[in-house]
Amino acid sequence: MREKIVFIGGGNMASAIIDGLLGQGRELADFLVVEPYAPTRDALIARGLACRESVGADIGGAVLCVLATKPQGLQEACGQVREFLPADATVISIAAGVDLASLSQWLGGHARIVRAMPNTPAKVGLGMTGLYATPACAEADRNRVDALFAAVGERIWTDTEAMIDAVTAVTGSGPGYVFHFMAALEKGALELGFSADDARRLAVSTFRGAAGLAASEAVPLTELQERVTSKGGTTYAALSHMRDAGVADAITQAVRKAEARARELSAG
């Protein structure tokens, strides 16, 4: 018997996970999506997915129930889900800033819950997802959840729920930092006379290549930096300016600011 996966919310992240799983051999019949927004729901139905406007008894056979709504709508969604949720289903929340205690309360005391923090590169299969499971989740539950997010990239399991806030600060928000740096590099290329198309290609390709190189070699990132930095050369001149401007410290502090904000959101 095939396992049914229910998504409460059919937005970008839910669609990315479904696409990843379909690419790994899952079938359309394995999924049920609850999506109240008609245009999104119609688009999902047009793809051949079973999609409902509201939660009903047909979620009863779910092995995994993914809460993929916006954080402000999560309590209402949980209130609808708890009436039909199987006792042995594992609930996964991808909403930032909503702790497990609140989720369990809103779900009527349900204990098998996993908090997940994926990031937007999941849309192209290159995501990084932080995961934390309650003690009630068995190894089989964790394995199912791990396989779910393996379809859209890498995973890291944390030992405490608090570390999900740290994951949020590093990889959840991280693409925003990278795009900020990329935009600055693109601007520099424009100022040097490149066309808009070429400036973007240069910036994106540089990041793609550097990330691929870093992923291919198990050496410290500082060593990779040293390899491309000749004393008195062009990279040296650029990096010296960045050090003088405190760029690295600013990035590190930005991560700390993001983590503090994530903790504030989690605390309500």
TrEMBL record:
It comes from Achromobacter spanius. The keyword Cell inner membrane does not apply. Its main location: cytoplasm. Pfam families: F420_oxidored, P5CR_dimer. NCBIfam families: proC. This is Pyrroline-5-carboxylate reductase. Its EC number is 1.5.1.2. HAMAP family: P5C_reductase (MF_01925).
